[in-house]
Amino acid sequence: MLMAHPVVLRNFVKQYEALRLLHAEQGSPEAQQRMNDIAYTLCVATGTRDVDAALIAARHRLPGARVEDDSLISA
């Protein structure tokens, strides 16, 4: 599996979160495409098929990640 450098992962996570905060999924076609591209890249880089799982996996690979970060159990 492709293992992205932690700096690259952090950058993609930040970009995805920024686009999500800006509601890019409801924005222009370009914004939607950028968000889809980043989600796809995160999935490939983490070996997952779902962007939420990819975000969790990426965060766990970043320096300073803790076991309790990003629980898979929904509240």
UniProtKB/TrEMBL annotation:
Pfam families, A to Z: DUF5133
Q: What is this protein called?
A: DUF5133 domain-containing protein
